[in-house]
Amino acid sequence: MPERRSSVRVSRIAAPSRPLNVPSARRTQIRTLEGVAAVIQPWWPLAGLAVIHLADAAMCLKPVGFIRDCLRDVGFPRRFWPLLPLMKTATAAGLVAGIWSTPLAVLTSAAVVCYFLTAVGMHIRARDLGRNLFLNASGMLVLSTATFVFALQTA
């Protein structure tokens, strides 16, 4: 059977001590090259968005002034504030893991786009049409959408 070529460039990472036994049905989830897990190239869009989400999670642990004001302005319930660092950390983990798993990269980046679509909607509903909407929420929506499109192209 002829080998199917992928448009995704891969680079080698450290070879495991024994070959990976990946069932053929799961090979699309873990791309392998001679038994070595492959890395999506370029990997930096996923890693960059993950770093942004980790920084945002750290700032949401005890919300800094502009984040606190933003959450109040859009009417985000205070009882959900403690969940934000957990969600953003989980997002960062999913994006980093997506570097080695294309379906996870697509899923996580799609979830981030949904998150920022919701954020933009909350700003519009609250008539918070200033810096928070145009710089923060819309800017992150554009960046997240670009990462999602990249992940789809590598799939």
TrEMBL record:
Name the UniProt key words of this record, in alphabetical order: Membrane, Transmembrane, Transmembrane helix
Identify the Pfam families for this entry.
Answer: DoxX_2 (PF13564)
Its topology with respect to the membrane?
A: Multi-pass membrane protein
Q: Which InterPro entries match?
A: DoxX
Q: Which GO terms describe its cellular component?
A: membrane
Location(s), subcellular? Membrane
Q: Which residues cross the membrane?
A: 106-126, 133-152
| Protein name (Swiss-Prot/TrEMBL) | DoxX family protein
Species, as recorded: Streptomyces gilvosporeus
Q: What is the lineage of its organism?
A: Bacteria, Bacillati, Actinomycetota, Actinomycetes, Kitasatosporales
